[in-house]
Amino acid sequence: QVQLVESGGGLVQPGGSLRLSCAASGFTLDYSYYAIGWFRQAPGKEREGVSCISSSEGRIYYADSVKGRSTISRDTAKNTVYLQINSLKPEDTAVYYCAAENLLGKVTMSCPHGMDSWGKGTLVTVSS
User: Which tens digit of pLDDT belongs to each residue from 1-27?
Assistant: First the structure.
């Protein structure tokens, strides 16, 4: 059973940085065909796909809203995917979720669409 647990959220001042962690269990990032994505949902807004990384093909996706100031990475030894966001803005305030897409039978990842499993989220608040 795939389980995802996010951590690293909190209160950050504008212009600061944050690194979110997504610890995965039920599969191994190093050998399994999974894409992991980070999503966020601000109050009153639709969920947004922020970034994705594919284990099998090494593809990476960034939304325009974070492109150039964020980095997604994975530590296979810890079975964890990270999202680093720099130059944080108040509009980055949201609950951040990680999700997994099973890539078996797929040519390429669909992430940020077609996710199969979700974590419960971690709150990021950007405010002075």
Answer: 899 999 999 999 999 999 999 999 888
The token pair that represents 112 in the structure block: 């940020």
Residues in CB range of 106: below 8 A, 6 or more apart: 33
Q: What's the CA angle centered on 110, arms 67 and 3, to 5 degrees? A: 90
| Residue entry with tokens 């296979």 | 76
CB 31 within 8 A of CB 99: no
Specify burial of residue 102 (Cβ count, 10 A radius: 0-12, 13-18, 19+). middle
Please state the length of the chain: 128
Which tokens is 63 given?
């939304």
Please report, for residues 43, 49, 50, the alpha-carbon distance to residue 72 in angstroms, rounded to integers and kept in the order given: 24, 13, 10
Q: HSE-up of 102 (CA within 13 Å, CB side)?
A: 9
